[in-house]
Records
---
Amino acid sequence: MAVHRYWRLLAEHNELGSNYGFGEIEMRESIGGADVTGSGTASDSSHLDAGSTAANCFDNNLTNKWISNGKTYPQWVKYDFGSGSEKDIAQIQVQPRPDTYYRETPNHFYFQYSDDDSAWTTSITIETTWTSDYRSQRFPATPQLSVFQNLSQVEYQEPALIKVSQNLSQVEYQEPALIKVSQLLAQIEYRDTSSRTNLDAVLQKTIYRNASLDAYLLDHYEKNVDLDALLQALKTKGSSLDAILTGGAVSGGGLFFCHG
């Protein structure tokens, strides 16, 4: 993303109650990083009284809270990092209102940013539930994608990959420069770029069927599949995925796609 001066949580809905409320709020520039609030200025759309302002959300006191004065839209908690101290927020941690009115905490809200305190852009829409132990929850500041639902948008972080099984954890999503599955496979060591497979079609079917790739392979070919060996066979034989699987060319140890 990019750095912005103003960030806010805009309430949309809560489970019950005549007000909205938040406990402690932390903002981080990296996943699991340090809270970068503290030197800026907190404000709110409204507060119930002098003891329930937005400043309570950024004071590191887990017993304090912000309480809005009613639920008339819009109700929000805002943090101004100040000129020259703009931040690129990657994660927020939110504590619900820490008392018996915890269900007044918004369970549907927006995390937004602005550069002028006037025009706001939603970074992420958050829907969640809160529990009576007032447990904090962490949320990424941008939407996260599922590997099998978004394989057409996958790009690997490292240019030279050794094994699929060793590198699936290194997947990240890049926009707007997206790489198709056929281009992605060309980046894998076992893939012979001169031969083409129908793996794209298999993956597309798994996406539209809302099913996992392993379940599809087991259901369609009735065997466990070692994906590393499969890709090696594609390189060696120059065959299609269907021909290799139906011919029994791959099985055994390594990375299995097993169902059930």
---
Amino acid sequence: MPGDLSPLGLSWQLATSHLNLGTALVLNGNPEAAEVILEEGLDLYRQLGDDIFAARVTHGIAHAALTRNEIERAEGLARSSLAVFAEQGERQGVAQGLEALAAVAAAGGDADRAATLGGAAAAVRETIAARAAPFELAVTAPFMERMETAADAEQWHRAWEIGLAMGADAAVAHALPVVGANHACAARGDGQLPDAHACLHPLCRSRTVARLAK
């Protein structure tokens, strides 16, 4: 934490000032400085126990990584924040996370995934009647526009429509694929867990909670 701010003490307002400044630095073309500020904000939100805003900061760091062309790192950060948004039922954050992952896919040259996730994000936004903020679009839109221009128009439209038809849970599951032995229900394919604590994947958690509530 910067020494000149420490006398103010630990507060949500201080953490949010880091989030806002870090976001501005990304938009002004200084992602390196942005990450330093955002990491400080992330530490503050974690100390305050604010998981949703900690996820928002992680989302901002993903944007910074994406603008630096650190595609794999951006993807990991975007997935991490999306998982929290999905678990908390934060639909605005889910839309933002899907948009970030769509831009990551576009940056990596995966037109089908970019369009599908972009369509899914648009569908989530329709359910909450909320447009993407200009500062979000400033980061993600250039990647999506370049990919759409390079892709086959019919294929892009078809993938976008598939995303639009997804529900939020299906979109999150598509964006956060889980494979391997550590995924308790991966081999079963039905999302039903023998142990409510066996899997942290948002879709599996929601299905398990629903099953146990019956």
---
Amino acid sequence: MASLGKRTERTGTHRLYAYGLVQRDYNNDELNADDMINGMPAIPTQFHYDSHYVGIGAAGALTDRLAYGIEAVYEGGHTNSSSFTLDDDGNGTVVPQQRATLGKRLFWRVVLFLARFPAGLRLLQRLRGS
């Protein structure tokens, strides 16, 4: 896994940030029919997962009793498809694996935090830098 870096800027009671992360799978492990799982031959499977993430966000205080955090993360990359399908009875059938594109996904996370108790107030004060 390699980090492309992170950049953080403070403006008053707000902290803005951006980051990038690249993950490469160097795992050469492979299951074959000679491997056993719970006494049954394994379904031949090759493992592979390469992903990358880019994110931006902000956190801070809106008032003395209201903090926020918002973040957007984009994920992309490639993986291997499943090596089997299951029928209605739960029996596995071998299918050829293919290189699959990870769904280009964008995640949003928003958190509003009302500081009405001592631990919450301490967290809010920390976010505000006071």
---
Amino acid sequence: MGSARTERWFRCWRSASWLASHQAKGWLLHVSGIDLSTRRILTTSYRPTLLTFAAFGAALFAIAALSNQHSSTALYLFLTVLNGAATGASLNYTLVHLLHLTPEDTHFIVTSVLAMFRGFAGSFGSAIGGGIFQRVLRASLQHGFDERGMDSEEESELIRKLLGSPRLVLGLQGTQRRVAMASYQEAITYVFVFGGCLAIVAMGLQAAAGWKEPMSKEVEGDEDEEGRDGLV
């Protein structure tokens, strides 16, 4: 009884996943202006996918270069919006490209795996980015305070507070304030540069995925029959 119930649940889940993947595929193809009958997904998703990755990485490098107190706030906001737009576009185009590269009978699996990895991305990205930020900030603060001959006990206490509360920078004066601001700028710059480098790696992997769709079963069957006829 239990195994039969489990099998029914699995069949229902598989049917629902298959239906959701086909609905998502149809909606994305409609929004992107792709004619499903012609299967011209190469020119409508492969290149735009790479362009969105390139725009994402370029925006990150530009934000890293402008992460200082002398930058234009309007330009900084514009680059942030551009980065977000590139992120949203890449989510759609990568899904279309993934559905194009995989057989239709596996779409319910690959869409679930894609959603899982996208869910992991936020957690892992925050953890890795936060770790890089904390390490670079601590090292920069220690280097800056050591160069100015600050007392070790006072330095350690101030670094501990600055690592936990950026708002503390507003209450500092003179050399301490300059060191703290320069250290925060350096840490933020490192995070965005690291993100831009990851975007380049991701773009290379995406490009290596190719653009040729898998051969359908009908075509494979025709080729097998032609091969047998040739042997006869």
